[in-house]
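Aim 2 progress update. The chain analyzed this quarter is reproduced below.
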Amino acid sequence: MDYPLIVDIFFLLLAALAVVSGWRVFATDSMVRASFFLLVSFIAVGVIMILLAAEYLGVAMFFMMAVEMMVMAIFMVMFMMNPAGLNPMMMVHQHKFSIAAGAAIFVVLAAVALLAEFPDSPLPGDLDPVKSLGNELLGDSMLIFESAGIVLLTTMIGVVVLSSHRGRYGAAEEGSMPPGLEPGGDPAGMPEEEDEGGGHHHCH
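Predicted structure tokens:
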């Protein structure tokens, strides 16, 4: 298939953007910024897929990675001890080993892309790629995908509930207390208070 020169130019620019933003994921000093750099890299890869006539995979990449990276950034802002995940921090550990492993993997993948002989099996012209891909992904795995979706939704709801200002035993700003072991009794697990007048302990 012959592509116009403008497609080749866009491919090279998007490939460079994906590589540079992927490198910035490990070079930045903030986990939130790293999430957005990774999002940019995935978006560039998605546009490359569209240029290669894989529209479904490209659009799926947009939706999946955009939501995933945004949720990751929001959770970092909400729960990290590092305020908002924006304070400077070291993003890479074992520097020499990481550089060596990354370079080796890059060489292997580049050699596969340039030297491997991929099979030539053209598809019929009337094939619906979206329908075929959907059957391939969700045909025998629909129950697994649906179950995973319910588990993820339940997890998100649980995280929101646990992070709410209302604690398990009442509103946090009002000083929540655990319930008593008996109806109307003192809160469970509370230490006995000393009576100011007589200097003795009391309990119910």
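DSSP finds six helices and two strands in the chain. The CA atoms of residues 159 and 196 lie 43 Å apart. These observations will guide the mutagenesis experiments scheduled for the next reporting period.
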